[in-house]
TrEMBL record, chain A:
SUPFAM superfamilies, per the entry: P-loop containing nucleoside triphosphate hydrolases
Gene3D superfamilies tied to this protein: P-loop containing nucleotide triphosphate hydrolases (3.40.50.300)
ABC transporter domain boundaries: 11-242
Keywords, ordered alphabetically: Amino-acid transport, ATP-binding, Nucleotide-binding, Transport
Keyword Kinase: no
Keyword ATP-binding carried by entry: yes
Protein family per UniProt: Belongs to the ABC transporter superfamily.
Protein name: Branched-chain amino acid transport system ATP-binding protein
Pfam families for the chain: ABC_tran
GO MF term list: ATP binding; ATP hydrolysis activity; branched-chain amino acid transmembrane transporter activity
GO biological process entries: L-amino acid transport
PROSITE patterns: ABC_TRANSPORTER_1, ABC_TRANSPORTER_2
Record InterPro entries: AAA+_ATPase, ABC_transporter-like_ATP-bd, ABC_transporter-like_CS, BCAA_Transport_ATP-bd_LivF, P-loop_NTPase
Automatic annotation (TrEMBL), chain B:
Transmembrane segments: 18-34, 40-60, 67-90, 110-132, 139-156, 176-195, 225-247, 259-288
Protein topology in the membrane: Multi-pass membrane protein
Keyword flag Transmembrane helix: yes
Keyword set includes Transmembrane: yes
Top-level taxon in the UniProt lineage: Bacteria
Main subcellular localisation: membrane
GO molecular function list: branched-chain amino acid transmembrane transporter activity
Protein name: Amino acid/amide ABC transporter membrane protein 2 (HAAT family)
Keyword field: Cell membrane, Membrane, Transmembrane, Transmembrane helix
Source organism of the structure: Halanaerobium congolense
GO cellular component: plasma membrane
Subcellular location: Cell membrane
UniProtKB/TrEMBL annotation, chain C:
Species per Swiss-Prot/TrEMBL record: Halanaerobium congolense
Protein name: Amino acid/amide ABC transporter membrane protein 1 (HAAT family)
One Gene Ontology MF term: L-valine transmembrane transporter activity
Subcellular location: Cell membrane
Bilayer topology annotation: Multi-pass membrane protein
InterPro entries: ABC_transp_permease, BCAA_transport_permease
Alphabetic keyword roster: Amino-acid transport, Cell inner membrane, Cell membrane, Membrane, Transmembrane, Transmembrane helix, Transport
Amino acid sequence: MAKDSNNKNLLTLENIESGYGKVKVLHNVSLKIKEGQIVTIVGANGVGKSTTIKTILGLIKPSSGQIKFKNELINSLETYKIIAKGIGYSPEGREVFGNLNVYENLRIGAYTVSKDDFTKRLEEVYQLFPRLKERKNQEASSLSGGEQQMLAIARALMQDPDLLILDEPSLGLAPIIAEEIFNRLAEINQMGTTILLIEQNVNLALHLSDHAYVMEKGKFVLDEKASILAQNDYVKKTYMGIA
Amino acid sequence: MKLTENHSDNFFKNRKKYTLVILFIFFILLFILSNSLSGYYYRILLLFGINVILTLSLNITNGYANIFSLGHGGLMLAGGYTTALLTLPVEFKANTLSLPLWLEQAQVPFIFSIILAGIVAMIVGLTILLPAFRLKGHYFILASLGINIIMINIAENVRPITNGATGLRGAPPYTNIWWIFGIAIFLIYLIWTLLTARFGRAIKAIGKDQGLAEAMGVNSAKYKAYAFMISSFFTGVGGALWTHLILTISPSSFDLLVVFQIIMMLVIGGVSSISGSILGAAIITAILEILQPL
Amino acid sequence: MDLTYIFQQVLNALSLGSMLALLAVGYTMIYGVLGLINFAHGEVFMIGAFTAMYAITGLGFPLPIALILAIIASVLAGVLLERFCYRPVQGSGDITLFITSLAASIGIRSLFVMLFGSRSMQFPMPKYLQGIRFWGDILITDLNLIIFVFTVIITLILSFFIKNTKLGIAMRGVSYNKQTAEAMGINSTSIIVATFVIGSALAAVAGVAWGLQYGNVRPAMGYHPGISGFIAAVLGGIGNISGAAISGFLLGVGQVLFVAFLPSVYSGFRPLFVWIVLFIILFYKPTGLFRSNIKWE
């Protein structure tokens, strides 16, 4: 699992302060993701994990600090421009377009991509998730939760992103399906996509990741290699329910 | 618990005393104004008073209960035509309209005609809107716009009773400063009392979050219907007062533009506030008068 | 009341149905992406009709060029409305949106009354559209036929566009969930502008058709057709193009039949028909006749 720690930084957050209106959620958050890594943010509900992601994507603008993607400042860009720089996003709760069929959902995922690249990419994604190919003409709202999650990930992969951001991909799924999704994520990472993961299933997430951050009350309190964090007593006790 | 209750009782006793004093001063002021203002400014003052009544009525639904209605023009129309038909000179009714004899001969005292105007407006509002209550959000707003259009359409087309698009002329000029501000103050008092009672709590809860209010056991349909009834009653009364001020009404006097003006009064002063409605009515009445020459 | 009579009335209603269908399609698309009842859509329709009228009577252009100018004017009006009325108040609550939309509608209408007066102005019809033909006892005007065919073609092309092109899919995506669409790399603002362009162009076509069919235009002409168009959009299921078009046709034809079967004294009640239908249908199906295409809370 040891990936070259000399790799370049793909995404960096420096001293980010962010929130909704006057309510500050993130305090002085800094984070680094190197190319090829899988990085997880672990934390309880409402501590600011999703806010961190929304800030990266420009859905919320940070009040101070810097966000760099591929060494380029992206703080003040609109969401659609940030996405076009090579970020794929699978939102919390999946948020597939229920009124569109599977194929059309994937077409929207490839919005920033040319028609030729789209057809090529579609085959690759169908290979990764054969179930989606079977159901390509079916409306997304009629899929099961696991299939919707696969669709959300596939949609995020359509533009062949350098960074894939996933918000709670295992939420509400049966353990066996969650595991299947995580196996897929490992495959995707092996093909060269960097992954930023938010997950409440800490056990599963730490097993998959290279690096992990623990977030509490809008701050990162731990920042370690995933394998080391998995042995950390505090993490075990608080997040994995192991005394 | 006991302590705070006593405290609030005292507070209200004092408040009542102050209110009476303020009311007394207010009526003296009205008396002075009614004797000193020239015809033009006196008329603006009356318009302002009617607008206060209309805005407060709209505030009950569109503000507190959060039932956004665009249909209050149709309710005003119902009130206006009712009072006109009950009080117009018998001669006019006999010559231009073909009414049943009892209505043709009717010369109802003002107080009864405005109460009847309110009741008719209330019935119209309920008939059209009760079925619409199960509609959500924008669909309800659309349906409420229907009241306006339906009432105007009826007034334009039932010529024997309404004289069509020409409208009714010569309503007696009964409206004066005492009627208007008396009713306005009664309405303020009524809203104020209702808001502090069980009804007000229920209505405000429904306005904030209907689902939650229902989960707490509030019968939202019932309270919304009550709110709508009170609102349409006073809108009808407002329409009647207006009719006896402008004296000639036609269907287009009550179109969407009128509703829009009242909504502006409501919004400018701040929704769900009594003083806001009064302030908004004052501002918009003034602006409309300034813009009149255009 | 024989069958020929009914069929004749249906044919007479084709142009009205077409206009309502065109308005309804524009309404449904704009409502879809913006979540806003664009009351000023009727005024965009009126602007198209006025532009064509002026291009023909004032500037002496032939009808096809007048139609193109009408489309340009309406599209411009629609885009300006979006940019200066609706974009600034986006996300500020239903009531604000409603008031803005009502104000825009009333404002544009009043402006036109100030400029042109509130009376009807004549809309000339070229000779080549004045023909009539007989099928047995049934009479049909060329104009009626042309408007209908034109509308059907436009609606079919548009449905295909919305169903199959990337922009069309993106429009549906934005209608369903704007934030997620943005997070897929879609610039939702430009999608909204594109929607206004299409909707306003359709309104312009409807406006010119109105002028040709009824021979006159006036500033208030957009009020009732606009609202009927929106009602058709609601009945068709918001965001559903073919649903809106079909409902528009049905409402138009229904209005004419409604009046045809009543004694002529009641012909003024025509606008009531759409409301009666709306109340009856919404009472039994509070989400419209056809399936809605957007998430409905």
